[in-house]
Amino acid sequence: MANPEEMYQCQTSNCGYIYNPDKGDRKGKIKKGTQFEDLPEDWKCPVCGATRKMFKSLGGPA
Ligand SMILES: [Zn+2]
To answer: 22 alpha carbon to ligand 1 midpoint, in Å?
Structure first.
C-alpha cells in the first residue's frame, strides 16, 4: 500500500484524479511502483492533461 504522502491528487477543478504509485498510469505508460517524484518531467494528468505542478500530495505537512 502506498502512503498518503506518496499519492498525489490533481488540483484542477472537476478532475480529482489521484496518482497512486502502486498502480502507476497505464495510459501514460508509467509502470507500477513509480513514485510521483520519478515521473517524467512532461508527464501529464491522464484525465485532464494538467502538468505535474498542478498536483498536491495527499499527506499534509508532517
Ligand atoms: Zn487532472
So the answer is: 18
CA of 7 relative to ligand 1 center, distance in Å:
14
Domains for the chain: give ranges and CATH numbers: 1-62 (2.20.28.10)
Q: Are 52 and 39 in contact (CB under 8 A)?
A: yes
Would you say the pTM of this structure is higher than 0.85? yes
Q: What is the pLDDT of residues 22-59, one digit of tens each?
A: 999 999 999 999 999 999 999 999 999 999 999 999 99
